Amino acid sequence: MKVFTTRVIPEEGLALLQRAGITVTQWSDLTEIPAKERIAKCKESDAMLFAGGQKIDRAFMEQCRHLKVISLLSVGYDNVDLKAATELGLQITNTPGVLSNATADSAFLLMQAVARKAFFHHKRILKGEWGFSTPTANLGVDIEGKTLGIWGLGNIGTVMAKRCRAAFGMKIIYNNRHRNEAAEKDLDATFVSFDELLQQSDVISVHTSLTPDTKEKFNAAAFSKMKPSAIFINAARGGVHNEKDLIAALQTGQIWGAGLDVTNPEPMNADNPLLEMPTVAVLPHIGSATIETRNAMSRIAAANVIAALNGKPVPNPVNHLYSL
Ligand SMILES: NC(=O)C1=CN([C@@H]2O[C@H](COP(=O)(O)OP(=O)(O)OC[C@H]3O[C@@H](n4cnc5c(N)ncnc54)[C@H](OP(=O)(O)O)[C@@H]3O)[C@@H](O)[C@H]2O)C=CC1
Ligand SMILES: O=CC(=O)O
User: Fold this and answer.
1) Using CB atoms within 10 A as the burial measure, which of 64, 82, 198, 251 is most buried?
2) Among 93, 288, 294, 304, which residue has the most ligand 2 atoms within 8 Å of its CB, making it the best to mutate?
3) What integer is the mean pLDDT of 69-84?
4) CATH number at residue 51
5) One domain, residues 173 and 271
6) Are 105 and 90 in the same domain?
């Protein structure tokens, strides 16, 4: 049995595949595998393991119907045409749960970096601009006791809420499509409408998946309803906010700051005005990028491949989610 991986995967997942007697071929180049090459590799393989957000569309999958599984090394599957996959009988799997802590930690880090303008100060020091500090200079804002609004209180959103409650005694409000009663009980979280979330939050942290419903939900209309002191955090997908509208909201003081682990497009251009703003912090989509977490993700992605190649039920299917 043969699996092709579109990026070099962490050691632990690789070892699991090899121990299961599967021949692993990896795309070791640091650039994205070209589309033609990807089809050629698919034709030689029984399974594919995808890392990164490369589009997996109907045209590609029509040529790869023989695959026993397309195993994603990610929890997000917005890059896959799930409807087409299911119609073509292709199993798609993901790696939920194990990356929730690391990803929430990146949102937590961004929240504090924005509140204290940490990235801006770091850039100034690099430029030799330590400067003369006065009691009214270099001021950020406190987080303690403020209201955190989570949009998408699922696995990652719940960890972010826990962290913020434990560290800063934040009051938690949230908006989902469905109420999360367990989190309401555990975190004393209050379900609010989307507009109430915008109006009441001091920090809004986005943790929804990217879907037609969530696409560019944070646009001019949404930013105009937020507090001028609000911090916007997005560690989900860049497509959930409209970048032009975010820039305008920051420039006109409609909101105070923004922390982004995800941008649209990725990578962000180095001349993007967001990178020059004192109350903005940007990370290059590193939410799950810790040694422990990426190894855990690779073990799960490998387990999905091994199950599929052995004709067993895959542990983490996502096909059923396309109709939700
Ligand atoms: N920055 C990074 O590196 C990473 C980013 N991610 C992103 O984070 C996302 C969330 O991951 P995870 O927490 O594991 O997923 P979950 O499925 O556990 O949580 C997603 C949440 O979003 C809610 N949601 C979905 N659609 C809507 C909507 N239209 N309006 C309001 N809420 C909605 C869901 O609740 P309900 O359906 O009840 O409304 C659910 O609570 C991933 O899809 C991925 O895109 C993930 C890992 C790393
Ligand atoms: O963005 C990362 C993911 O796991 O989804």
Assistant:
1) 198
2) 288
3) 97
4) 3.40.50.720
5) yes
6) no
Task: Tell whether 313 and 273 lie within a shared domain.
Answer: no
Between CA 216 and CA 197, with CA 176 as vertex, the angle to 5 degrees is 70
How many folded domains does the chain comprise? Answer: 2
Which is catalytic among the residues 11, 37, 62, 266?
A: 266
Average pLDDT along the chain: 97
Task: Let me know whether 200 and 244 are in one domain.
Answer: yes
Assigned token pair, 187: 């975190």
H helix intervals, the chain: 11-19, 35-43, 58-62, 82-87, 100-115, 118-126, 155-168, 181-187, 194-200, 220-225, 243-251, 291-309
Residue 131 has what pLDDT?
81
User: Is 204 found in the same domain as 107?
Assistant: yes
The residue segments making up the domain with residue 147 are: 100-282
What is the mean predicted confidence (pLDDT) over 213-221?
A: 98
pLDDT of residue 323: 65
pLDDT digits (tens, 9 = 90+) for 257-281: 999 999 999 999 999 999 999 999 9
ipTM of the complex: 0.99
Does one domain contain both 203 and 148?
A: yes
Catalytic residue among 38, 207, 237, 299: 237
State in Å: Cα 62 to ligand 1 middle. Answer: 28
Ligand 2 pocket test, pick from 71, 74, 214 with the greatest ligand atom count within 8 Å of Cβ, gives 74
- Hey, whose CA ends up nearest to atom 16 of ligand 1? 154
Annotation marks residue 237 as catalytic: yes
Q: pLDDT tens for residues 240-256?
A: 999 999 999 999 999 99
Q: How remote is the CA of residue 75 from the centroid of ligand 2, in Å?
A: 5
Q: Which two tokens stand for residue 99?
A: 């990356």
Residue 285 falls in the annotated catalytic set: yes
Q: How far is CA 86 from the centre of its chain?
A: 24
- Residue having the nearest C-alpha atom to atom 23 of ligand 1: 152
Residues 6+ apart with CB under 8 A from 151: 157, 174, 175, 194, 197, 204, 205, 206, 207, 208, 217
